[in-house]
Write the C-alpha cells for this entry.
Amino acid sequence: MNYTGRVIPEFILMPLSLLAIIGFIAGSSLVLIWAERKVAARIQNRVGPMMTGPKALAQFSMWTGGLMQTPADAIKLLTKELIIPAQADPIPFIMAPIIIVTVCITAFIVIPFGPALSVSDLNIGIMHIVAISSLTVLSILMAGYSSNNKYSLFGGLRSAAQMLSYEVPLIFALLGPILLAGTLSMQGIVQAQQEMGVWFAVPSFLGFVIYYISSIAEVNRPPFDIPEAESELVAGYVSEYSGMMFAMFFLAEFANMFLVCAVAVTVFLGGWLVPFVDISAEPQAWQVALGLASFMAKTSILVFIMMWIRWTFPRVRPDHLMNLGWKYLFPLSLLNLILCAAAVVIREKHQWGGPGVALVGLIGFTMVIALLKVIRPSSATSLLKAQV
Amino acid sequence: VATLVMFYVLSGLTLASALYVVISRNLFHAGIALIMCFVGVAGIYVTLATPFMAAMQILIYAGAIAVVLLFGFMLTHDLMRPQIQSYQRMAGFLTALGLGLVLTVTAVLSPWFTLSSAAPENAIPLLAHGYMTTFAVPFQMIALLLLIALIGAVVVARKEEGPP
C-alpha cells in the first residue's frame, strides 16, 4: 500500500496486509456462500436459509433472512472431528487443503483493490497470479491420490485434465490485454485503461468472453464441475475430507471464484476505474474509497453472473468440455491475440485510432456471436442422438 | 543479509527435496518432492531479482510438467504401494557423484560474469526486446524444437487405425 507514503516500515506493513488479505478471503467467502445459496434459492423458486439471524429481517424479505447461516456452518465445521481414513496417505492428505488455501492467499497479493491499494504491485503482476494459480491443480491431485478412494482418484484426474486444458485459452486470452497495456503489472494495466480512455473489454471482447468461460472451468464450477460431479463421483476429490479440511477446500473454491472475477475486472473491465467519471482530481482518500467501491461492485456483478450460470446450465460432458476448450476457445484466443496486436498498431500509427479500436472490438463481438451459433446446433443434435 | 539467508534456506529446501525425489520409494511422494524442488528453484530466482524467471519456472515446471508427471503416475495401477526398486544403485550413485564433482569444479574454476550495475527494476521489456532482436534465431529454434516434440508426442500416442 504505497499511498501511506512509507510512514509505516515494511516489516510491519507486510504482515498486516497479509492478515488483511486472509481476513478478506474468509469474510468474502462467508458472504459469497450465503449469496450463492440465496441466488440458488431464488432461481429454484425457494427462499433458501431463513432460520438463523435476526427474525425481524427474515420477515422483511427472503434476501435478508438467514444472515448468520454461514458463520453457524463454519463454527459447526470447526468443531467437527478431522477424520483421516485408515488407508489414506496421511502427509499429502493433510498438505492438500493447506496448499490450496496458501496458493489462493499468495495469488491475492497483487490484486489492485483501488488506486495504490494492493499488497504488493509486482511488475510481473498478472504472471504471478497465473503461475501461482497453476499450483492449485497440484493440491487437487494430492487430495485425489492420498484419499485412496477410486472416486477421489477419478475426480483428481478429471480435474487435472480440465485445469491443464483450460489454462491454455485462459492465458492466451489474457495476452491480448497485456499487449494493449504494454505491462504485466496489475496497477499498470488499470492505468493503461485509464490512459486509453476505454476498457480493454471493448477491443478485446472476444478475449473477455474466452477468459470468463475458461475461468469458470479453472475454478471447477458448474457447468464445468465434472471433477466433483455428485451423481458420478460422490464429491470427487473432497469425498474423504471432513470438518475444517473440507471447509478449507470450500473456502478456496469461493476465494478462487472471487480471484478470477477480480482478475477479469482488472484486466478487461477497468479495475478500480469508475465508469464515465474521472476521479483523479479528487483527494486521495476519496479516490481510494471510490475506486474500492467501483472494483467491488464490478467484481460482485461478475461473481453473480457466475452463480447465475451455475444454477442455469446443465453439466457439460467431459468430451464436450475438451472439444470446447481445444477446438473453439484456444483458436479463438489466438485470433483475439492477433486482433489486439492490430488494435495496438492502429492506435499507434494512425490518426483514426479510436474508431479502429472499436472496429477491432466489433470483429471480436461478431466472433462471439458466431461461436454461439456454431456450438449450438452441434450440441443440440448430439443431445438428440443421446436421447435416441 | 535477508536475501542471503533466504538464498541458503531455499537452496537447502531445493537440495533436500531433490534428494528425497531420488531416495523415495513412493512414486507419488517423489513427484510432490520434485514440485517442491522446482518451487525452491523459483524462490532462488526471486532472490536473484529475476521474478519473471521465477513465475515461468512455477508456471511451466511446477504447474505443467510436474503435474502431468503426477497425472501419469495416477494412471498406473497399484498406486498406494511403494513401487520403485532400484537395480543400479551403485552405478547411479557414482554417476551422480561424478557429475556433481565435474559441475562443482567447473563452477569454482570458471570466471563468473559480474553485473557492473544493479539489475534494472523492470527487466521484462528488455527481455522481450532481446528475444525479438539479438536472440531471435535461438528463440525460433526453441519454438521449432518444441513443435517437433509436440508432433512427435502426437505420433507416438496416436493409435494406428486401418492399414499402416
Summary: Chain A has a mean pLDDT of 79.
